[in-house]
Amino acid sequence: GQSAASTSAPSSSQAPATAKLQPKPLSKEQHRQPDEADGTYCHVSKHSSNGFAIVFAKSAAHCSVMLQRAKLRFQSRLDGAVVMVLRGLTMEVKQHQDKASGEVVASDLFVAWGHQQEKEAGQSLTAAMLAHEFDKLYTE
Questions:
Q1: What's the per-residue H, E or C state across the chain?
Q2: Is the pLDDT confidence value at 21 over 80?
Q3: pTM score, two decimals?
Q4: Which residues, in sequence order, are CB contacts of 125 under 8 Å at separation 6+?
């Protein structure tokens, strides 16, 4: 009876494994997965469906330098946000605020341009492009 049990066991365990290999359409949760990229001085998490990204600088000091240089190079608004133009897209850059606490996060920047603008421009920004641009701001 052992040979019958051993031949039936692998076939029953293989069926679910084969089913897992079938490609499935992306779930809503998977569509929401951010595009991530590491720069030299920052990490970028881009939320493509909403047209915004969070730039996580290596430190609060790095973040401060990036924001100050952006203010010098681009237009600064009265509320402290900077209006930057990168690759033909106009974006707003400001200190990131933690959603839960409402506290300003000294090492993070919130960058927003809107998904519609990407569609109209016919190009999209990747997290890698943003990381490169914010690294350039830090080093210039």
A1: CHHHHHHHHHHHHHHHHHHHCCCCCCCHHHHCCCEEEECCCEEEEEECCCCEEEEEECCHHHHHHHHHHHHHHCEECCCCCEEEEECCEEEEEEEEECCCCCCEEEEEEEEECCHHHHHHHCCCCCHHHHHHHHHHHHHC
A2: no
A3: 0.75
A4: 46, 53, 86, 87, 89, 113, 118
Query: Nearest-5° angle of CA 79, CA 85, CA 86?
Result: 130
pLDDT tens column, 59-99 = 999 999 999 999 999 989 888 899 999 888 899 999 999 99
Give pLDDT, residue 13.
45
Is there a contact between 112 and 55 (Cβ–Cβ < 8 Å)?
A: no
Averaged pLDDT of the chain? 83
Query: 9: which 2 tokens?
Result: 């066991």
- CB 49 within 8 Å of CB 138: no
Encoded tokens for 67: 């924001």
Tokens of 62: 């790095």
* Phi and psi angles of residue 30, each rounded to the nearest 5 degrees, phi first: -70, -35
How many residues does this entry show for the chain?
140
Q: Is the pLDDT of residue 31 over 90?
A: no
